[in-house]
């Protein structure tokens, strides 16, 4: 068993894989890249729309409060893009220096920060849009509800799954005994 104390997942945690720290870091890096591709695309599209808003004729009709919300939203969008594109810079600048496990750890942390900033950006953009569309305090309540929904989908559900997982369940192979396992489907419900 290899020591994995410096990698995400905790000290001495048995993942059921027999990987060297470098192999594990390579796998985790590839997984992180896949996650970042999804987030980066959405952020870039949102940020592009935000940049275009200021050039629309109706922008001059916005109240001072709405303009302030717009500026805050653009700044949050910029910070989000920086955080979610940051891991690419980490990788490029640290490639070949035998720091992949540390790169994965810090890039993962930067990605989580990027997700928090993305949550703030989405809520701020939604607040601006709903204030302009509704012209009443309902906009703030709707944004609050959506912020709660984002928190549940992005952070609460994963934390709940993590809290419910037991050490025995983590050691068991993924295809063994779950509701979608091959053995269960072949046997059918109610059959031994």
Structure description:
- The chain is 71% helix and 0% strand.
- The protein is flat, with a radius of gyration of 22 Å.
- It is mainly alpha-helical.
- It contains 6 helices and no strands.
Features of this protein?
192 residues; 6 helices
- Computed structural class: mainly alpha
Shape category:
flat
Give a quick account of the main beta sheet: strands, pairing sense, barrel closure.
none
Q: Low-confidence runs (pLDDT<50, min 5 residues)?
A: 1-6, 172-188
Strand percentage lies at: under 5%
Q: Radius of gyration in whole Å, from Cα?
A: 22 Å
Tally of DSSP helical segments: 6
- The total beta strand count reads 0
Mean pLDDT value? 82
Into which percent range does the helicity of residues fall?
Answer: over 70%
Summarize the helices and strands and which ones pair or pack.
Blueprint: H1 21-53, H2 64-94, H3 100-134, H4 138-164, H5 167-171, H6 182-187
A few lines on this structure:
The chain has 192 residues and is mainly α. It is built from six helices and no strands. The chain starts with 20 loop residues before the first helix and ends in a 5-residue tail after the last helix.
